[in-house]
């Protein structure tokens, strides 16, 4: 079926390093290539001449360019800060790192629930021994196993039908078991396996490369968690390989850059305000501070995994809605809003969206 086909984006990136420029040089629109790479435009809707041109650029056949049930693409999670600034890569590896109490394990449980909603099989590779704090992850996953053989057998048994999202502790990286599992899975055809790694013992927070190569790095910020701004994903230092090349739309990339620049400046200004007061800021800096404060608040979001504790229903915010809301905040269309109205919300309220008219 055509709707199960995707571009072999890893092949394209490897053989055509500057894909956007190369596509433009042969008459293809960068947006067209971007939409095919991210999966926004289904292969079935692509023109044959576009696929033939891309195959020619990569020096391969059209059959090699197309793969069934695979290919690099963004996994939309409905979590605003992740989808905008550090998108998850289908078939890639995600690493979570932070200090105790910053919300890593809650994020693991939340991703379990959200991936199940997307139709993924969620598997938790449970670490050996008694480990506190993982009960919610176990309850949220479709399957829980302690040994690599059980994990491998289960993934092989269901991988022909749907994608797998594997959750595991850092110990399987250090022991070499994850590498062995991946080698074993290479011999079995099937849909992609996306892996999320967490440092359950919080031993690697200060390591620059705690998990080896990653496609998405989610850094958790103790300052955000101390101010009860959850998810406490650091919006400045969390990053994804989806930022590279033509893997995201130009609008998305532009908003990423603008949002990260604003939040970096906002952090600098927070230190000034904390030491000398808001009054010392220039008018442009005061505007940047207030917009950064609103954007930071907007990224806080109710989770399904914490509903029983917060009494707030979880919120799923579609990527396009996130992009629209972030643009409004960056452009000043929400300058009239009180910051408190943005805490732990989903989309900008309808009346606030209308306020920009």
Automatic annotation (TrEMBL):
Protein localization: Membrane
Keywords per UniProt: ATP synthesis, ATP-binding, CF(1), Ion transport, Membrane, Nucleotide-binding, Transport
Q: Name one GO cellular component term.
A: proton-transporting ATP synthase complex
Q: Does the keyword Ion transport apply?
A: yes
**PROSITE patterns xrefs:** ATPASE_ALPHA_BETA
Keyword Nucleotide-binding in the entry? The reply is: yes
The cross-references to PANTHER family, in alphabetical order and at most eight, read: ATP SYNTHASE (PTHR15184), ATP SYNTHASE SUBUNIT BETA, MITOCHONDRIAL (PTHR15184:SF71)
The family line of this record is: Belongs to the ATPase alpha/beta chains family.
| Protein known as | ATP synthase subunit beta 1
Gene source species: Paenibacillus solanacearum
Q: Which gene encodes it?
A: atpD1
């Amino acid at each position: 079926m055509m709707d199960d086909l995707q571009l072999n984006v890893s092949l394209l990136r490897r053989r055509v390093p500057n894909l956007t420029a190369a596509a433009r040089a042969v008459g293809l629109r960068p947006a067209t290539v971007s939409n095919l790479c991210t999966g926004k435009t289904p292969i079935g809707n692509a023109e044959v001449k576009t696929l033939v041109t891309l195959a020619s650029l990569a020096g391969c056949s059209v059959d090699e360019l197309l793969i069934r049930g695979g290919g690099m693409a963004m996994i939309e999670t409905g979590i605003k800060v992740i989808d905008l600034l550090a998108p998850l890569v289908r078939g890639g590896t995600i690493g979570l790192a932070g200090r105790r109490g910053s919300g890593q394990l809650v994020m693991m449980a939340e991703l379990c629930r959200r991936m199940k909603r997307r139709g993924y099989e969620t598997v938790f590779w449970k670490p050996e021994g008694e480990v506190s704090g993982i009960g919610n992850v176990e309850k949220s996953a479709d399957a829980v196993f302690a040994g690599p053989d059980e994990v491998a057998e289960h993934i092989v048994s269901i991988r022909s039908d749907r994608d797998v999202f594997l959750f595991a502790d850092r110990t399987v990286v250090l022991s070499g078991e994850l590498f062995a599992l991946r080698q074993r899975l290479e011999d079995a055809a099937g849909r992609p396996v996306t892996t999320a790694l967490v440092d359950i013992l919080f031993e690697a927070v200060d390591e620059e490369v705690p998990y080896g190569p990653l496609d998405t790095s989610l850094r958790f910020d103790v300052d955000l968690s101390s101010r009860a701004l959850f998810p406490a994903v650091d919006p400045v230092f969390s990053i994804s390989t989806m930022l590279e090349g033509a893997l995201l739309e130009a609008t998305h990339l532009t908003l990423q850059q603008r949002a990260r620049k604003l939040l970096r400046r906002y952090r600098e200004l927070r230190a000034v305000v904390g030491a000398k007061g808001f009054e010392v800021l220039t008018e442009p800096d005061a505007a940047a501070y207030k917009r950064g404060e609103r954007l930071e608040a907007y990224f806080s979001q109710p989770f399904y995994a914490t509903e029983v504790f917060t009494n707030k229903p979880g919120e799923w915010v579609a990527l396009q809605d996130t992009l629209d809301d972030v643009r409004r905040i960056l452009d000043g269309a929400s300058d009239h809003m009180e910051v408190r109205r943005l805490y732990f919300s989903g989309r900008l309220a309808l009346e606030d969206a209308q306020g920009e008219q």
